[in-house]
Amino acid sequence: MSGAAEITAGEKRRAYTGPAFLSHGFRPFFFLGACFAALAIPLWLAAFTHGYGVGGDPMRWHVHEMLFGYLAAIIAGFLMTAIPNWTGRLPVMGLPLFLFVFTWIAGRIAMASGDGILVATADSAFLLLLAGFAWREVLNGRNWRNLPICFFVSLFALGNILFHLESHLALPFGIGQRTGLAIAAMLMSLIGGRIIPSFTINWMKKQDRHPLPSPFGSFDKVVLLATGFVMIGWVAAPDRSGTGYALLAVGILHLVRLARWRGWSTFAEPLVAILHIAYAWLMAAFLAIGASILRPDIVSPTLALHVLTAGAIGQLTMAVMTRATLGHCGRPLEAGTGTVTIYALIFLGAATRIAGPFAMSDYALVMTISGTLWISGFLLFAILYGPMLFTPRRS
Fold first, then answer.
1. Which of 27, 143, 329, 362 has a CB 3.0–4.6 Å from the CB of 388, allowing a cystine?
2. What Pfam families does its record include (predicted)?
């Protein structure tokens, strides 16, 4: 963009006088996403342990809302903050941002009410709007490097639509869920592969630690390409042994990628270390899903999917939410005791959920403990970070 255009965008941003909560996308979507996660899990646990229904089919509602409800909100908060930084264009703020938030909330209300064409339409609108926003901003900003993000958000919206259509059009069972999870894995691989080595290098340089992590390069492109092909295979043929072996191979590639970032050198700064831990969950998810295809008697498909969802998605989204909130709200990029507690609660919640099938005690009790730990992390985020999200940035 031209300098004049950049100045205009900056002036418009500074001229905003509305509520701080609606000044950047990360503010409402991180806060509401965390609150929704803390609400949705107890509702699901109630359905699981006592048979209380929500959204018609409780299992279907749980799967959809954690993927296309919670994760969609965090993706929106991240992109509505990151894309203006990438393009130099004005962020969505004020009334337009409120309308995005309202559309997301309407989708959550609709999904809780049952099923049908009106529910599907209300729910699908948000991700379609988000995809449109991404395409408009990236294309108008001529930010060609981030076109893959636009494709992935569009495919994520398609996965949500397939989720609603699969029972009506005799589509393969679970294709909408797998499409959404595959895109989530690709977004974590792509965005994580950019920010994790970058933040790690910056921190290690300040600490004068060497050798530095390997920056994004040819090896990372190979890993992303391989992951994309394997994810297509998993969406199309989730039960084939070839898919299982391919997932194991991709998991090993991600392990090598993670090792190249030298995460073991960052544990003095939890705000950086948590990114490596979260990516380790993603690597473990590829291995677990592959193992569940080849040896479902040892690793159940449900367990494997929770490595990806409760583990990788839960940990990486929280790592991004805390860091982005601190940075964009003008706070020091340091993880205090409260933030470390948030990370620990989500990690323990995911680990307990995965260990549940192997526990000797009552399975419902283990599920309840797991859910309590996991949602406690999100509640603590809302309590500690909510005041930052509702108040103006510190100078």
1. 329
2. NnrS (PF05940)
- Contact between 9 and 88 (Cβ < 8 Å): yes
Q: Which residue type occupies 89? A: R
DSSP 23: S
Residue by residue, DSSP assigns 194-261 as HHHHHHHHHHHHHTT-SSPPPPS-HHHHHHHHHHHHHHHHHHH-TT-HHHHHHHHHHHHHHHHHHHHT
Domains contained in the chain, CATH given: 1-171 (no CATH), 191-395 (1.20.210.10)
Whether 342 and 383 have beta carbons less than 8 Å apart is answered as no
Instruction: Record the tokens describing residue 151, joined without a space.
Output: 């494709």
- 3-class DSSP state for residue 296? coil
Quote the pTM value: 0.94
DSSP letter (8 states) at residue 392? P
Peptide bond into 357 cis (omega under 30): no
The answer to whether residue 4 scores a pLDDT higher than 60 is no
Tokens of 297: 């008697």
H/E stretch holding 41: helix 26-50
Return the DSSP state at 300.
Answer: -
Please state, in angstroms and rounded to a whole number, the distance separating the CA atoms of residues 213 and 219.
13
pLDDT tier for residue 348 given thresholds of 50, 70 and 90: very high
Q: Taking each helix axis from N to C terminus, what angle separates 175-206 and 218-236, rounded to the nearest 10 degrees?
A: 160
Distance of alpha carbon 243 from alpha carbon 249, whole angstroms: 10
Given this model, what pLDDT does residue 366 score? 84
Q: What is the mean pLDDT of the chain?
A: 92
Considering only CA atoms, which of 20, 66, 22, 24 is closest in space to residue 43? 66
Q: Could you tell me the two tokens for 202? A: 């910056």
Q: How many helices, marked H, and strands, marked E, lie in the chain? A: 15, 0
256 contacts 250 by C-beta, under 8 angstroms: no
